[in-house]
Amino acid sequence: MRSLLFVPGDDSRKLAKALSSGADALILDLEDSVADDAKSKARRICLDFLNSALSLADRPALYVRINALDSGLSDGDLDAVMTAGPDGIVLPKAQTGSDVTLLDARIAVRETLHDLPESRTAIIAIATETAASIFGLGSYVGASARLCGLTWGGEDLAADIGASANKDATGYWTQPFMLARNLCLFGAVSAGAQPIDTVFTDFRDLDGLRREALAAANDGFTGKLAIHPAQVPVINEVFTPPPEAIAEAQRIVDAFSAAGNAGVVGLDGKMLDRPHLIAARRTLDRAGTKT
Fold it and tell me: What distances in angstroms separate CA 16 from CA 26, 54, 59, 228, 244, one per listed residue?
């Protein structure tokens, strides 16, 4: 998934409009974008939307961001939306892999209750929203076979540590937040999950978004969260490998195949080893499918 667009769960108009945004996934939000007194309403609206949209032939993946496990609201969120069978659940404020394991169990119960295929519901965890969570980024390995993505957040983290800002005057993340970002990247890859970059909050600054997305893609992230439909085309472009990169990756894979999958091959006067093959396969994977 290249682009994952947050949509307020209590706004049926925005939910309907988001279907044509071009995003690879929509994240129906029951958490931060919904006021406390609108939570029940948001659950009903999300459920209605899921029931109508999941059957569409050409649609984005449909995820739901529930409230945090310690909020007292997450079970009610799951009770509502799992009756429709969303493609996945986004877990905010995850502290360690054990939170994902717990969510896995709660989802499994509801899959059984609603006759959904076993283990069909994926999980994306937002893993850096508290200071304590930073120390758990290596704990997602083996937490759940459902874990398909790990992402990070700078806004809640700034509030938790008391930072007056999370970016400097030039618009780049300051050091504490770059640390969280980078550890999330390593944690995701080590867990076999997609590393997904966080939101760019100034939705009018598409040049700034492009710069940040390019830096994330260069470092190894393969997708990015979005908060506005206008951000989706930029994100999709940045995280879609260009034709020349796809062609080069295919040449590398073909060279290794022709050599009987040797440890080292020569191509255009250069010696290539297994890391080059792994990178080429990842490029082809990203080019071949959105999910």
Answer: 11, 12, 11, 14, 36
Q: Flag whether pLDDT at 281 surpasses 50.
A: yes
**DSSP structural state of residue 229:** G
Q: Which residues contact 122 (CB under 8 A, 6 or more apart)?
A: 63, 87, 88, 89, 146, 147, 148, 149
Domain boundaries, the chain: 3-238, 243-288
Tell which CATH architecture fits domain 3-238. Answer: Alpha-Beta Barrel (3.20)
Q: How far apart, in whole angstroms, are the C-alpha atoms of residue 121 and residue 116? A: 9
Q: In 3D, which of 106, 182, 175 has the Cα closest to residue 138?
A: 182
Q: Give the model confidence (pLDDT) of 167-182 as tens digits.
A: 999 999 999 999 999 9
* Confidence (pLDDT) at 220: 94
Instruction: Please tell me what DSSP assigns to residue 290.
Output: -
Residue 125 has pLDDT above 80, yes or no: yes
pTM above 0.85, yes or no: yes
Distances (CA, A) of 248 to 202, 216, 257, 273, 277: 35, 21, 14, 15, 11
DSSP 29-46: ESSTTS-GGGHHHHHHHH
Residue ranges with strand state E in the chain: 3-8, 25-29, 61-65, 88-91, 122-126, 147-151, 194-197, 223-226, 264-267, 270-273
Q: In which element (H, E) is residue 12 found?
A: helix 12-18
